[in-house]
Amino acid sequence: MTLNDLFVLSPEIIVTVSALIILILDLFLAAEFKRSLAGFTLFGIVLAAVANAFIPIGSAPLIQGMLRVDAISQFLNLIFLVGAGVAALLSADYVKRQGIARGEYYALILLSTLGAMLMGSSANLIMIFLGLETLSIPLYILSAFMRTRSASQEAGLKYFLLGSFASALLLYGIALLYGATGSIQIDEILAKLPAAMLATPLFVYAGGGLLLVGLAFKAAVVPFHMWAPDVYEGAPTSATAFMAVAAKAGAFAALLRLFGPGLMQIDSAGVVIIGILAGLTMIFGNIAALAQLNLKRLLAYSSIAHAGYLLLAITAAQSTPLAGTAINGLLFYLLIYTLMTLGAFGVVILAEGRGENLSLSDFSGFASRHPWIAGAMAIFMVSLAGIPPTAGFIGKFLIFSAVIQAGEIGLALIGVFASVISVYYYLRVVYYMYMRPSTSERPVFVSGFIVLGVGLTAIAVLVFGIYPSVILQWLPQAASATLP
Amino acid sequence: MPIENYLILSGILFSIGALGVLMRRNALIIFMSIELMLNAVNLSFIGFARQLGDPTGQVIVFFVLVVAAAEVVVGLAIIVNIFRAKDTVDIDDIDVLRG
């Protein structure tokens, strides 16, 4: 390890140090000042984002080939940091209201972000495993953070048992690939796979399959999604918001590294399987969301459906000349997904008031009572449905056009069909807010931090929808970076 | 002794663990089964490292042990917390969330 390695890793180091400082500060802060820890968390995240923008990037592996800091991992880091920052804004007053205002909460968010960042820059299978665990273990704790509420306890237990089961599957996949190829470097493995497939096909296919299943669990891809609705519903809403974006973005970062461009040359059956998973996820996620009246469950199924669109981009990235376009689409969509999901959960936190279990009927006449919050929610719903002029439309457009160019017309049709279904349940929320008479007088919970978070994400979703070039001009560099 | 025997044993242990996760209803037993799966993987890492003459596999085992220890801490805390509230760790009785 050289000094330069440390410099390139400064975003990760800043995030880690911030988490440790928060744990220490927490010991000395009186209860009424705990909110300042959210401010410190944001400070650390902004510092890491600034460092991330200035680090020199190259595709050469660092630290004995453990990490690869290239343009893709730089953009992924930005997504993770934006997600963590907005999540910290949404949490600041929410945790206080729920009586769980403890410093560990922010430290866990930062550590989980660190895990996602490590996954995004992994050049090595064991780093993927360690990053995944660093991402997941804090998330288990965060979902069980409301220790006295049975829903939160149950969410923590379910997430923990299924999550560590998935980690064990993933680890066995790593072991088998290591045995088949004699290496844990991703680029070496890809180079040696064709020969290994002839020598020990069982190890290669079982190993690759287990890796895919393990990551599909974390990304909540059908048929490995069953934990998601329960965990999303039971966890504290601010933790759900963070989990929905961090776990998904981290898992897709690893999927891009492992099953991105290059898989097609090695095994076309693997590409077909990913395509089938994408189709199943889009159809099932959207159809199951139709019946949901609980807002958190609705957003859970919506996040499952979005995993399907993201998988589509991975499928499209297989056709070599178009890999750049598809990866651009994936990265853009991940960023927009992060913004609109966090924003929608922010509105849920505001509308929950002091209670829990926000249902659709609580939104009846919401627009007449709180026109600004309702306006923001309408923007998020329209964007999640993929309707112009929001950023969600641009993201879907990029992915679907990459899929069509790659010749996967059938998958693109399924995607468009699934999006049409999704319009119904997203716009139903808008319909309740604007068209229904006000029935419930559930008082909203007004907090400056949360309103700021919701406002910023709503503006970003609109601005990136009208001027997508703000983001897109960064992306060609990201896609031109060499993938292993 | 040929290396295949170790790999077969680790495959059997892993399958027993996976079946335990899927079939048992006690959260503690499920958790033990997950630990069994992780240790089966460790055995196969060591077997492969021996076969390849490469220490990487053995080093990985240390990482996995640390991760498993961290998982134990968090998992037991969650299970103990539930046991205090409900006096049971049977996952069929823990069913507030559904729908």
Brief sketch in words of this structure:
Chain A is mainly α and about 475 residues long.
Describe this structure in words.
Chain A is mostly helical. Chain A has 22 helices and no strands. The mean pLDDT of chain A is 89. Chain A starts with a helix and ends with a helix. Chain A has a domain at 264-484. In chain A, 77% of the residues lie in helices and 0% in strands. Chain B has 99 residues and is mostly helical. Chain B has one domain (3-86): Helix Hairpins. In chain B, helix 1 (3-23) packs antiparallel against helix 2 and helix 2 (27-52) runs antiparallel to helix 3. Chain A binds chain B through residues 126, 129-130, 133, 137, 140-141, 144, 147-148, 150-151, 153-158, 160-161, 164-165, 167-169, 171-172, 174-176, 178-179, 182-184, 229-230, 233-234, 292, 294, 297, and chain B through 7, 14, 17-18, 21, 27, 30-31, 34, 37-38, 40-41, 44-45, 47-48, 51-52, 54, 56-57, 60, 63-64, 67, 70-71, 74-75, 77-79, 81-82, 85-86, 91, 94-99.
Characteristic terms for this protein:
heterodimer; A: 484 residues; mainly alpha; 77% helix; globular; B: Helix Hairpins
Strand tally of chain B, please? 0
Note the quaternary state here: heterodimer
- Radius of gyration of chain A, in Å, reads 21 Å
**What is the name of the CATH architecture of chain B?**
Orthogonal Bundle
Order of helices and strands of chain B: HHH
Q: Helix content range of the residues of chain B, please?
A: over 70%
* N/C terminus separation of chain A: 21 Å
Low-confidence stretches of chain B: none
CATH class of chain B: Mainly Alpha
Coarse shape of chain A: globular
Given helix and strand content, the structural type of chain B is mainly alpha
Distance between the termini of chain B: 53 Å
